[in-house]
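Milestone M4 deliverable, item 7.
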Amino acid sequence: MSQEQNTAGTWIQVAAGLKNPGMRQLLGAVLTGAGVPEQPGKTQLKDLARWQKIGLLGPDGQLNEKLLDQTLSSASAAQADRTGIQRFFTGHRLDTLPAKPADRHEVLVSIRDAVIGADEQLREEQVNERLRVFHPDVALLRRYMVDHALLLRAADGSSYRRWDES
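Output delivered:
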């Protein structure tokens, strides 16, 4: 995965994390200087681990300024590029799914690559959280990704993982 794709994926994960009230509250405490509570609860530890996995918070609980700068630069660069599949987006928001199957597949691959890492397995609500950054109809995007063999859905429907054709 290129650095640009990796940064775009990080941006989506940061945005999804900000939509989660608990993660937003924890990040707010760090940003305002209050820091992580001395005796964090189970949920707070989970939220902290998610921020650290994304890379926005370091192991010491401090904000990763470099990652923040990179993601903001990536977002502004994507806004300027309206060629290729970017013509179907306004910024990171998907305006419309392309009618041509080849274009649709390319758009879905791009979204999939930004939403889920090669080694991740996510619960449906986590996939929805990340897809919502792109488009409000997360069920449609998720269904298309499964239909296009880009995501594999567990037999019990509890989780999704990335399917790479290589």
